[in-house]
User: Which sequence fits this backbone?
Protein backbone atom coordinates (compact mmCIF):
# COMPACT_ATOMS: atom_id res chain seq x y z
CA UNK A 1 0.00 0.00 0.00
CA UNK A 2 1.15 3.58 -0.68
CA UNK A 3 1.07 5.15 2.78
CA UNK A 4 1.69 8.75 3.79
CA UNK A 5 2.90 9.25 7.36
CA UNK A 6 2.18 12.70 8.74
CA UNK A 7 4.72 13.50 11.46
CA UNK A 8 8.39 12.54 11.68
CA UNK A 9 8.92 12.51 15.43
CA UNK A 10 9.57 9.30 17.32
CA UNK A 11 6.11 7.89 16.61
CA UNK A 12 6.20 8.71 12.91
CA UNK A 13 9.73 7.37 12.53
CA UNK A 14 8.76 4.14 14.31
CA UNK A 15 5.70 3.73 12.09
CA UNK A 16 7.85 4.32 9.00
CA UNK A 17 10.26 1.62 10.16
CA UNK A 18 7.51 -0.95 10.67
CA UNK A 19 5.61 -0.15 7.48
CA UNK A 20 8.70 -0.13 5.27
CA UNK A 21 9.76 -3.46 6.78
CA UNK A 22 6.28 -4.81 5.97
CA UNK A 23 6.73 -3.89 2.31
CA UNK A 24 4.61 -0.76 2.06
CA UNK A 25 5.65 2.24 -0.05
CA UNK A 26 6.00 4.97 2.57
CA UNK A 27 6.15 8.74 2.18
CA UNK A 28 7.20 10.59 5.36
CA UNK A 29 6.15 14.22 5.89
CA UNK A 30 6.92 16.87 8.48
CA UNK A 31 6.50 20.62 8.41
CA UNK A 32 9.85 20.95 10.24
CA UNK A 33 13.00 21.02 8.06
CA UNK A 34 15.08 20.52 11.21
CA UNK A 35 13.26 17.23 11.87
CA UNK A 36 13.59 15.97 8.30
CA UNK A 37 17.16 17.00 7.49
CA UNK A 38 18.92 14.28 9.56
CA UNK A 39 16.84 11.62 7.80
CA UNK A 40 17.34 13.18 4.38
CA UNK A 41 21.09 13.44 4.93
CA UNK A 42 21.45 9.68 5.42
CA UNK A 43 18.68 8.74 3.01
CA UNK A 44 16.50 7.01 5.58
CA UNK A 45 15.77 6.34 9.25
CA UNK A 46 18.18 4.58 11.57
CA UNK A 47 16.47 2.43 14.16
CA UNK A 48 17.22 0.16 17.11
CA UNK A 49 15.14 -1.81 19.56
CA UNK A 50 12.24 -4.23 19.25
CA UNK A 51 12.02 -3.85 15.45
CA UNK A 52 15.69 -4.69 15.05
CA UNK A 53 18.60 -2.45 14.18
CA UNK A 54 19.46 -0.90 10.85
CA UNK A 55 18.37 1.67 8.30
CA UNK A 56 15.04 1.81 6.47
CA UNK A 57 14.53 3.92 3.36
CA UNK A 58 11.08 5.43 2.83
CA UNK A 59 10.24 6.18 -0.80
CA UNK A 60 9.98 9.90 0.00
CA UNK A 61 11.00 12.15 2.92
CA UNK A 62 9.75 15.69 2.40
CA UNK A 63 8.04 18.78 3.75
CA UNK A 64 5.92 19.10 0.58
CA UNK A 65 2.43 18.04 1.64
CA UNK A 66 1.05 17.92 -1.89
CA UNK A 67 3.86 15.59 -2.92
CA UNK A 68 3.09 13.06 -0.17
CA UNK A 69 -0.63 13.13 -0.94
CA UNK A 70 -0.07 12.37 -4.62
CA UNK A 71 -1.28 8.81 -5.30
CA UNK A 72 -1.37 7.90 -1.61
CA UNK A 73 -3.84 5.21 -0.56
CA UNK A 74 -3.91 5.89 3.17
CA UNK A 75 -2.78 8.62 5.55
CA UNK A 76 -1.39 7.75 8.98
CA UNK A 77 -1.19 10.71 11.35
CA UNK A 78 1.43 10.16 14.06
CA UNK A 79 1.69 13.71 15.39
CA UNK A 80 0.92 14.70 18.99
CA UNK A 81 -2.83 15.07 19.32
CA UNK A 82 -2.68 18.83 19.83
CA UNK A 83 -1.76 18.99 16.12
CA UNK A 84 -4.81 17.10 14.86
CA UNK A 85 -7.01 20.10 14.07
CA UNK A 86 -4.24 21.95 12.23
CA UNK A 87 -3.32 18.83 10.23
CA UNK A 88 -6.96 18.19 9.31
CA UNK A 89 -7.23 21.71 7.92
CA UNK A 90 -3.89 21.35 6.13
CA UNK A 91 -4.95 18.13 4.42
CA UNK A 92 -8.30 19.61 3.47
CA UNK A 93 -6.65 22.70 1.97
CA UNK A 94 -4.12 20.63 0.01
CA UNK A 95 -6.52 18.35 -1.73
CA UNK A 96 -6.67 15.13 0.27
CA UNK A 97 -9.24 13.05 -1.66
CA UNK A 98 -12.24 12.14 0.43
CA UNK A 99 -11.72 8.54 -0.74
CA UNK A 100 -8.34 8.27 1.06
CA UNK A 101 -8.78 6.96 4.61
CA UNK A 102 -7.08 8.61 7.59
CA UNK A 103 -5.75 6.65 10.57
CA UNK A 104 -4.93 8.60 13.72
CA UNK A 105 -2.11 6.73 15.47
CA UNK A 106 -3.00 7.74 18.12
CA UNK A 107 -6.33 9.56 18.39
CA UNK A 108 -6.11 9.56 22.19
CA UNK A 109 -9.26 11.23 23.58
CA UNK A 110 -11.64 12.76 21.04
CA UNK A 111 -9.16 12.76 18.16
CA UNK A 112 -11.43 11.49 15.40
CA UNK A 113 -14.23 13.85 16.42
CA UNK A 114 -11.94 16.88 16.43
CA UNK A 115 -10.22 15.87 13.18
CA UNK A 116 -13.53 15.57 11.35
CA UNK A 117 -14.85 18.84 12.77
CA UNK A 118 -11.69 20.71 11.76
CA UNK A 119 -11.72 19.19 8.25
CA UNK A 120 -15.32 20.31 7.85
CA UNK A 121 -14.30 23.88 8.60
CA UNK A 122 -12.54 23.79 5.20
CA UNK A 123 -14.50 21.21 3.20
CA UNK A 124 -17.75 19.35 3.68
CA UNK A 125 -16.46 16.00 2.40
CA UNK A 126 -14.27 14.58 5.18
CA UNK A 127 -12.52 11.25 4.59
CA UNK A 128 -13.24 8.12 6.56
CA UNK A 129 -11.41 8.39 9.89
CA UNK A 130 -10.22 5.72 12.31
CA UNK A 131 -8.31 6.24 15.54
CA UNK A 132 -6.23 4.26 18.01
CA UNK A 133 -6.51 4.65 21.76
CA UNK A 134 -2.76 5.04 22.11
CA UNK A 135 0.38 5.10 19.99
CA UNK A 136 1.42 1.67 18.75
CA UNK A 137 5.01 2.20 19.97
CA UNK A 138 7.10 3.24 22.92
CA UNK A 139 9.74 5.22 21.08
CA UNK A 140 12.18 8.08 21.58
CA UNK A 141 14.61 9.96 19.35
CA UNK A 142 17.79 10.31 21.37
CA UNK A 143 19.63 11.13 18.15
CA UNK A 144 17.98 13.18 15.39
CA UNK A 145 18.53 10.53 12.67
CA UNK A 146 17.72 7.50 14.83
CA UNK A 147 14.62 6.21 16.59
CA UNK A 148 14.91 3.92 19.60
CA UNK A 149 11.84 1.66 19.82
CA UNK A 150 11.60 -0.01 23.22
CA UNK A 151 8.06 -1.32 22.77
CA UNK A 152 5.53 -2.22 20.09
CA UNK A 153 1.94 -2.59 21.20
CA UNK A 154 0.44 -6.05 21.29
CA UNK A 155 -3.03 -4.53 21.18
CA UNK A 156 -4.57 -1.07 20.92
CA UNK A 157 -8.25 -0.15 20.74
CA UNK A 158 -9.36 0.96 17.28
CA UNK A 159 -12.60 2.53 16.12
CA UNK A 160 -13.97 4.59 13.27
CA UNK A 161 -16.62 7.25 13.00
CA UNK A 162 -19.78 6.23 11.14
CA UNK A 163 -18.95 5.65 7.50
CA UNK A 164 -15.33 4.98 8.38
CA UNK A 165 -15.18 1.30 7.48
CA UNK A 166 -12.46 1.88 4.90
CA UNK A 167 -10.28 3.63 7.49
CA UNK A 168 -10.74 0.85 10.02
CA UNK A 169 -9.83 -1.74 7.39
CA UNK A 170 -6.69 0.22 6.53
CA UNK A 171 -5.82 0.55 10.22
CA UNK A 172 -6.06 -3.20 10.77
CA UNK A 173 -4.10 -4.02 7.63
CA UNK A 174 -1.27 -1.63 8.44
CA UNK A 175 -1.17 -2.29 12.18
CA UNK A 176 -2.15 -5.87 13.11
CA UNK A 177 -2.32 -4.89 16.79
CA UNK A 178 -5.50 -2.87 16.11
CA UNK A 179 -8.43 -4.36 18.02
CA UNK A 180 -11.82 -2.92 16.92
CA UNK A 181 -14.27 -1.66 19.53
CA UNK A 182 -17.88 -0.57 19.21
CA UNK A 183 -17.39 3.18 18.77
CA UNK A 184 -14.80 5.93 19.10
CA UNK A 185 -15.88 6.66 22.68
CA UNK A 186 -14.63 3.20 23.70
CA UNK A 187 -11.29 3.99 22.06
CA UNK A 188 -11.21 7.52 23.49
CA UNK A 189 -11.82 6.29 27.02
CA UNK A 190 -9.12 3.63 26.66
CA UNK A 191 -6.45 6.33 26.31
CA UNK A 192 -3.96 5.15 28.93
CA UNK A 193 -1.86 8.33 28.79
CA UNK A 194 -4.82 10.35 30.03
CA UNK A 195 -4.55 8.41 33.32
CA UNK A 196 -0.86 7.52 33.28
CA UNK A 197 0.66 11.01 32.91
CA UNK A 198 -1.40 13.73 34.69
CA UNK A 199 -1.01 12.49 38.31
CA UNK A 200 2.79 12.30 38.08
CA UNK A 201 2.97 15.53 36.07
CA UNK A 202 1.10 17.44 38.78
CA UNK A 203 2.38 15.71 41.92
CA UNK A 204 5.96 15.57 40.65
CA UNK A 205 5.98 19.17 39.38
CA UNK A 206 8.46 20.51 41.96
CA UNK A 207 10.93 17.72 41.22
CA UNK A 208 10.50 18.25 37.48
CA UNK A 209 11.35 21.95 37.87
CA UNK A 210 14.21 21.31 40.28
CA UNK A 211 15.85 18.48 38.35
CA UNK A 212 14.77 19.31 34.78
CA UNK A 213 13.31 15.83 34.51
CA UNK A 214 16.46 13.96 35.55
CA UNK A 215 14.63 11.00 37.05
CA UNK A 216 12.68 8.06 35.67
CA UNK A 217 9.02 9.05 35.38
CA UNK A 218 7.56 5.54 35.57
CA UNK A 219 9.90 4.21 38.26
CA UNK A 220 11.26 6.90 40.60
CA UNK A 221 8.22 9.08 39.95
CA UNK A 222 5.75 6.26 40.55
CA UNK A 223 5.37 6.58 44.32
CA UNK A 224 2.49 5.07 46.30
CA UNK A 225 0.82 8.48 46.63
CA UNK A 226 0.97 9.12 42.89
CA UNK A 227 -0.38 5.62 42.30
CA UNK A 228 -3.35 6.21 44.64
CA UNK A 229 -4.33 9.34 42.73
CA UNK A 230 -3.89 7.46 39.46
CA UNK A 231 -6.15 4.66 40.66
CA UNK A 232 -8.85 7.17 41.64
CA UNK A 233 -8.58 8.86 38.23
CA UNK A 234 -8.82 5.47 36.55
CA UNK A 235 -11.98 4.67 38.51
CA UNK A 236 -13.49 7.90 37.16
CA UNK A 237 -12.49 6.97 33.60
CA UNK A 238 -14.23 3.63 33.88
CA UNK A 239 -17.33 5.23 35.39
CA UNK A 240 -17.63 7.61 32.43
CA UNK A 241 -17.18 4.66 30.07
CA UNK A 242 -20.02 2.81 31.82
CA UNK A 243 -22.26 5.84 31.32
CA UNK A 244 -21.84 5.30 27.58
CA UNK A 245 -22.33 1.54 27.75
CA UNK A 246 -18.70 0.40 27.83
CA UNK A 247 -17.20 -1.91 30.46
CA UNK A 248 -13.49 -1.14 30.19
CA UNK A 249 -10.69 -2.90 32.07
CA UNK A 250 -8.51 -1.13 34.60
CA UNK A 251 -5.45 0.83 33.53
CA UNK A 252 -3.10 -1.99 34.54
CA UNK A 253 -5.02 -4.65 32.61
CA UNK A 254 -5.19 -2.33 29.59
CA UNK A 255 -1.42 -1.78 29.79
CA UNK A 256 -0.88 -5.53 30.03
CA UNK A 257 -2.84 -5.94 26.82
CA UNK A 258 -0.77 -3.20 25.17
CA UNK A 259 2.44 -4.70 26.56
CA UNK A 260 3.72 -1.87 28.75
CA UNK A 261 2.95 -3.76 31.98
CA UNK A 262 4.39 -7.26 32.21
CA UNK A 263 1.95 -10.10 31.55
CA UNK A 264 2.94 -11.96 34.73
CA UNK A 265 1.83 -9.15 37.07
CA UNK A 266 -0.74 -10.78 39.32
CA UNK A 267 -1.86 -7.89 41.53
CA UNK A 268 -3.42 -5.46 39.09
CA UNK A 269 -4.56 -3.24 41.98
CA UNK A 270 -0.96 -2.28 42.87
CA UNK A 271 -0.45 0.45 40.28
CA UNK A 272 2.97 1.53 41.53
CA UNK A 273 4.59 -1.92 41.36
CA UNK A 274 2.93 -2.88 38.08
CA UNK A 275 3.88 0.32 36.23
CA UNK A 276 7.39 0.60 37.65
CA UNK A 277 8.08 -2.99 36.61
CA UNK A 278 7.24 -2.45 32.94
CA UNK A 279 10.27 -3.04 30.71
CA UNK A 280 9.19 -0.78 27.83
CA UNK A 281 8.86 2.38 29.97
CA UNK A 282 11.46 1.67 32.65
CA UNK A 283 14.22 3.98 31.38
CA UNK A 284 12.06 6.88 30.18
CA UNK A 285 12.90 10.17 31.84
CA UNK A 286 10.41 12.62 33.30
CA UNK A 287 9.45 15.83 31.49
CA UNK A 288 12.24 18.38 31.49
CA UNK A 289 9.84 21.33 31.72
CA UNK A 290 6.18 22.28 31.67
CA UNK A 291 6.48 22.64 27.88
CA UNK A 292 6.77 18.84 27.58
CA UNK A 293 3.96 16.99 25.81
CA UNK A 294 2.87 15.33 29.08
CA UNK A 295 1.65 18.83 29.97
CA UNK A 296 0.83 20.16 26.50
CA UNK A 297 -1.01 17.05 25.30
CA UNK A 298 -2.38 15.06 28.22
CA UNK A 299 -4.27 17.89 29.88
CA UNK A 300 -5.65 20.04 27.06
CA UNK A 301 -6.18 17.07 24.72
CA UNK A 302 -6.59 14.26 27.25
CA UNK A 303 -8.23 15.33 30.48
CA UNK A 304 -10.15 18.22 28.91
CA UNK A 305 -12.12 16.13 26.39
CA UNK A 306 -12.56 13.54 29.13
CA UNK A 307 -14.17 16.22 31.30
CA UNK A 308 -16.44 17.13 28.38
CA UNK A 309 -17.52 13.49 27.99
CA UNK A 310 -18.09 13.23 31.75
CA UNK A 311 -20.35 16.28 31.68
CA UNK A 312 -22.37 14.87 28.78
CA UNK A 313 -22.57 11.49 30.53
CA UNK A 314 -23.64 13.05 33.83
CA UNK A 315 -20.73 11.58 35.82
CA UNK A 316 -18.89 13.48 38.57
CA UNK A 317 -15.10 13.33 38.16
CA UNK A 318 -13.59 15.35 41.06
CA UNK A 319 -10.05 13.93 40.74
CA UNK A 320 -9.88 14.73 37.03
CA UNK A 321 -11.26 18.23 37.74
CA UNK A 322 -8.68 18.83 40.46
CA UNK A 323 -5.72 17.63 38.35
CA UNK A 324 -6.84 19.74 35.40
CA UNK A 325 -7.26 22.90 37.48
CA UNK A 326 -3.94 22.39 39.27
CA UNK A 327 -2.15 21.85 35.97
CA UNK A 328 -3.49 25.11 34.57
CA UNK A 329 -2.23 26.89 37.69
CA UNK A 330 1.17 25.16 37.46
CA UNK A 331 1.83 26.10 33.86
CA UNK A 332 0.19 29.53 34.14
CA UNK A 333 -1.96 29.11 31.04
CA UNK A 334 -5.44 28.04 30.03
CA UNK A 335 -5.65 24.60 28.44
CA UNK A 336 -9.26 25.29 27.62
CA UNK A 337 -8.34 28.24 25.39
CA UNK A 338 -6.51 26.00 22.88
CA UNK A 339 -7.57 22.54 23.98
CA UNK A 340 -9.97 19.88 22.78
CA UNK A 341 -13.32 21.25 23.89
CA UNK A 342 -16.84 20.07 23.14
CA UNK A 343 -16.99 22.85 20.56
CA UNK A 344 -13.79 21.78 18.78
CA UNK A 345 -15.01 18.16 18.72
CA UNK A 346 -18.35 19.21 17.24
CA UNK A 347 -20.36 17.84 20.17
CA UNK A 348 -21.35 21.03 22.02
CA UNK A 349 -24.94 20.95 23.21
CA UNK A 350 -25.35 17.20 22.83
CA UNK A 351 -26.77 15.02 25.58
CA UNK A 352 -25.78 11.41 26.19
CA UNK A 353 -28.15 10.00 23.59
CA UNK A 354 -27.17 12.63 21.06
CA UNK A 355 -23.46 11.82 21.43
CA UNK A 356 -24.07 8.09 21.17
CA UNK A 357 -26.15 8.64 18.03
CA UNK A 358 -23.33 10.69 16.51
CA UNK A 359 -20.59 8.09 17.04
CA UNK A 360 -22.46 4.84 16.38
CA UNK A 361 -23.06 3.24 12.99
Assistant:
Amino acid sequence: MRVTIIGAGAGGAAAAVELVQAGHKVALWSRSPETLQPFQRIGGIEHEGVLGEGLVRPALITGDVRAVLRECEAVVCTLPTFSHAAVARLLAENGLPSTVPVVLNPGHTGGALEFRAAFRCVRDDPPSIAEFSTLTYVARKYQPQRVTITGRAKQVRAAALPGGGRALEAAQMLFPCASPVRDVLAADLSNVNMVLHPPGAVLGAAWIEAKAGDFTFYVEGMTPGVARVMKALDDERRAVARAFGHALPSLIVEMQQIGTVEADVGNTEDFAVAIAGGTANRRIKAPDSFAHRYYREDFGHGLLPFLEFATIGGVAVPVADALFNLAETLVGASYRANGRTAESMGIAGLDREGLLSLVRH
